[in-house]
Write a structure and sequence with these properties.
Blueprint: H1 4-15, E1 26-28, E2 34-36, E3 66-68, E4 71-73, H2 95-100, E5 105-109, E6 112-116, E7 121-123, E8 130-132, H3 135-138, E9 146-150, E10 153-157, E11 162-165, E12 169-172, E13 178-182, E14 187-191, E15 196-200, E16 207-213, E17 218-223, E18 228-233, E19 240-242, E20 257-258, E21 263-264
Antiparallel strand pairs: 1-2, 3-4, 5-6, 7-8, 9-10, 11-12, 13-14, 14-15, 16-17, 17-18, 18-19, 20-21
GO biological process, one term: receptor-mediated endocytosis
Protein name: Putative vitellogenin receptor
GO molecular function: calcium ion binding; hormone binding
């Protein structure tokens, strides 16, 4: 039977050896732990201290970059005519692109020559040729009205009576459109292009419906509370009440100005 004190010394010596005691072909983890030299820089922390993965050269690179002299070489530097790797590996096999006979462009992806197409074209099933992408037919354009397909691109146009704005939008010819609306309190006018809003007088009349006579610049509205009709010139606050020749006791729910006869309905 071994003395307990002797056994404790043996165990202590096993787990707390110095680096000088690690045999050949092993790596010292710095805390007395020895691991196989094959586990050094293998991507796994075999040492509890992690020293086996410290100061290791780059062993792999995310696609499509290439490992070169312990560092990752960007894909754009591959086959660019300039030698970046000490062994010239970044310029090896570059004639593979010339053998692909790509119709537009060739690049290396994960070490393999691949054809690609420029913007506005798509790669054919043969992996070599390119065809035009019809953005108009695919409905991937930004045109507001009409789309005209071009090789590798498209162009926007507008219908008669409109002009192109900012290459994609269409704007009606002629004077700036004007919109009138009410919110059961006031009557507002909005210039549609400049987005400027102005107030038409007599908002205290609780306007419910509104219409506009473009020839005289008169704004007409009906007050829901008083059941009355009013008008005011667009740039005036002097508003008038209209006499009603035929009117039921029901509430006014609609108002329309007939620009041909000059009548209100």
């Amino acid at each position: 039977m071994w003395p307990k004190r002797f056994l404790a010394l043996v165990v202590l010596a096993t787990f707390h050896r110095t680096s000088a005691e690690c045999p050949n072909g092993t790596f010292d983890c710095g805390d007395g732990q020895c691991i196989s030299e094959d586990h050094r820089c293998d991507g796994d922390n075999d040492c509890e201290t992690g020293l086996d993965e410290a100061d290791c050269p780059q062993q792999w690179c995310p696609a499509p970059d290439t490992l070169c002299d312990g560092r990752c070489l960007p894909q754009s530097w591959r086959c660019d005519g300039e030698r970046q790797c000490s062994d010239g590996a970044d310029e090896d096999g570059c004639d593979a692109c010339s053998l692909k006979h790509c119709s537009q462009g060739c690049k290396f992806v994960a070490g393999e020559a691949m054809c690609y197409c420029t913007t506005g074209f798509r790669l054919l099933e043969d992996g070599v040729g390119c065809e035009d992408e019809d953005e108009c037919a695919d409905d991937t354009h930004n045109c507001e009205q009409t789309c005209i397909n071009l090789p590798g691109a498209y162009r926007c146009s507008c219908m008669p009576g409109y002009k192109t704005v900012n290459t994609t939008l269409c704007q009606a010819d002629g004077p700036e459109p004007l919109l009138f609306y009410c919110d059961n309190q006031k009557v507002y006018g909005v210039w549609m292009r400049s987005n400027q809003t102005f107030y038409v007088g007599a908002g205290e009349k609780r306007a419910r419906v509104v219409d506009f006579d473009g020839d005289t610049n008169r704004v007409y509205w009906a007050g829901s509370k008083e059941r009355s009709l009013y008008y005011c010139y667009m740039n005036s606050t002097d508003c008038k009440m209209l006499s009603i020749t035929s009117y039921s006791n029901s509430q006014i729910d609609g108002l329309a100005f007939d620009w041909v006869t000059g009548n209100l309905y």
